[in-house]
Specification:
Elements lengths: L6 H17 L6 H10 L6 H10 L8 H41 L33
């Protein structure tokens, strides 16, 4: 199986190859086809392959049965991927909108426009070594 290839496309390609082999007079059992298909899947299907191998008898399994299991797993993967992409785009859009609002209410202060805080810089309190402390009497 190629990276990015869907299960439907993969099984379509397998059926084409098997059809060509049948036209050349080669007879391949479903058991061999299923075993080769399960071996050639990408790693994202490893746990599904293990479940199929453990729970089903591969000697009586048709080619369509693992295909249905793999398609349902692929659908589940795609659904969760789409949701996370949608959420990522929504977050990016929210931050983009917030950034535009912040720029419009900046009042052209530029850098260093913060005033206030905890009272530093007015000469009151403990001071910074510039003469006597105005806070002490």
């Amino acid at each position: 199986m190629k990276n990015g290839e869907s299960i439907t496309d993969f099984f379509s390609r397998i059926r084409t190859i098997v059809g060509q082999l049948h036209s050349y007079g080669e007879q391949i059992s479903d058991e061999i086809i299923v075993a080769k298909v399960l071996r050639s899947l990408t790693t994202k299907f490893d746990h599904v392959v293990a479940a199929i191998e453990e729970s089903k008898d591969l000697s009586v399994l048709s080619v369509d049965e693992p295909m249905r299991s793999l398609q349902s797993h692929e659908t589940r993967i795609n659904r969760s991927t789409e949701k996370s992409e949608e959420q990522a785009f929504q977050v990016k859009e929210t931050f983009t909108n917030l950034g535009e609002n912040d720029r419009s209410t900046n009042n052209d202060q530029g850098r260093g426009g913060f005033r206030g805080g905890r009272g530093h810089g007015c000469g009151y309190g403990r001071g910074r070594g510039r003469g006597r402390n105005d806070g002490q009497r």
